[in-house]
Design brief:
single chain, alpha/beta, Rossmann fold
Length: about 200
């Protein structure tokens, strides 16, 4: 079984992936930003490095999905390949930070990759407002995220909502996280687990 956790920057994807992998004994697959050779350059000069960053993500996530599908254990994935194609790349293009030529090349490549993919069995979407996102970003203190602007997060949130409203690839579970602290409060985590259990039982 393949479960994927989606959501904006700072929504709690990595934390929830870790907690759920521990609870269900699923194999976790994390988005490792610190090893990304483009991420720091991107936040310093988005126009110059946006295409490079998105191609890197597309390649690394495709390879990760291929590895996950070969495993005998159930897996839970921190961020999906769809988010790059439907959220981040289009947003960069709309903001003038990725040229139309580069965006068209990226979209064509993603279409080829998508034709070889099997979607996750359950997509867990963490819906969070801007204040919650900012609070989490500040709390984790990644220096390369210091330059993230509020309007950038807002644009991403709008694109997430548009994508989720049309998502038909598989089962979808939306979690409202603004008033949850699933890392510190067992009852909040339990609420999410109960919802996931319902979706899992619906698969069989």
């Amino acid at each position: 079984m393949h479960i994927a956790v989606a959501g904006n920057i700072g929504s709690g994807k990595t934390t929830l992936t870790r907690l759920l992998s521990r609870h269900y004994d699923w194999e976790p697959h994390y988005e490792v930003l610190d090893d990304n050779p483009y991420i720091r350059d991107f936040y310093e000069d988005m126009h110059r490095w946006s295409f490079n960053l998105q191609i890197y993500f597309l390649n690394s996530r495709f390879n990760a999905i291929q590895r996950m599908r070969q495993m005998s254990r159930s897996v839970i994935q921190d961020r999906t390949i769809y988010e790059d194609a439907y959220i981040f790349a289009p947003n960069l293009h709309a903001m003038g930070l990725m040229s139309t030529r580069d965006f068209d090349t990226y979209q064509s490549l993603f279409a080829s990759v998508k034709s070889m993919l099997q979607p996750p069995d359950i997509l867990v979407y963490l819906r969070a407002g801007i204040p919650a996102l900012v609070n989490q970003i500040q709390k984790r203190g990644r220096d390369y995220e210091d330059s993230i602007r509020l309007d950038y997060l807002k644009r991403l949130n709008e694109r997430y909502e548009a994508w989720i409203s049309t998502y038909r690839e598989g089962k979808l579970l939306i979690i409202e996280v603004d008033d949850l602290d699933f890392e510190a409060k067992a009852e909040d985590l339990g609420t999410i687990i109960n919802k996931i259990d319902t979706e899992i039982h619906g698969l069989f």
